Amino acid sequence: MEIVAFGVQSDERPLIEKAFEGHHEVRCLDVFLTEDTAPIAAGYEAVSSSVNCGLGHRVLQTLAAGGTQLIAQRSTGFNNVDLEVAERLGMTVARVSSYSPHSVAEFAWTLAMAVNRRVVRAATRTRDFDFRLDGLMGRDMHGRTAGVVGTGKIGEAFARIAHGFGMNLLGWDIAENPACVELGMKYVPKERLLAESDLITLHVPLTPQTHHLVDAAALRAMKDDAILINSSRGGLVDSRALVTELREGRFTGVGLDVYEEEAGLFFLDKSLEPVEDDTLARLVTFPNVLVTSHQAYYTEDALGQIIDTTLRNVLDYAEGRRSENVLVPRS
Fold first, then answer.
1. Domain spanning 101-291, CATH architecture
2. What pTM did the predictor assign?
3. Active site annotation includes 13
């Protein structure tokens, strides 16, 4: 079976090709799957997509018309795939249900400490041989409160690191994680978590219920000197409301590895093009904001697990098996 993989980064290509060698032929493309690029998949039974590929009804219809029967998503999130349309077209959709939670949790902490200790500003200064400390003062994390919104595997990994820092732990989720409770985490209503936490980190999936979970009211409920970290999904945070609060001089720091309008921007070089997204353009100008391009998952360990699971999903499909990774089964 021939497979075409869209949105493949240069670091990914050799790993994907090595994993699929001896199993199925795979063609790796650096372009993302869109309405314009979907016709490339004509004749390929299986398509592998990345998290920033948009698989709406038109893309899926084009894929189905070209003979594609399997969508193997190289990510945990699947809010970019119209599952109802895929099912109606008789397509199988599979994802990577889990990979190293440490990759995302550790990067969330990287963002937190970078904005807390003004690392980017300090590095920029020293490159200009400016070694002043003015404006670089941070805070100890020890003894302060970390609020973890979403305490699944990634939230738990983040909480373990926070526990190592000697922080107090507050959690919010639909169900308590016993491992987090053992760390001393106290589960509280979201409003209390926002009001009492010095560091707030988001680790919940993006669903209609969690869209803009951190809205204007939630942002106003936070401490003026809080640190907000989002390494989950951009749509969890109302970006325009965040800009409004930042303009008021609020928050010690904000670290964003995701952005709600990142599709068509992240993973691409836009350095020579006019900036069309006014909200993102404003966000990156704040000295206490650090934006990265959805790279929290991007470690050798996590990427290897993602690719291995994607291969297993393809093999399961080819051999008629079904696993927990299947979102839409073969009709």
1. 3-Layer(aba) Sandwich (3.40)
2. 0.91
3. no
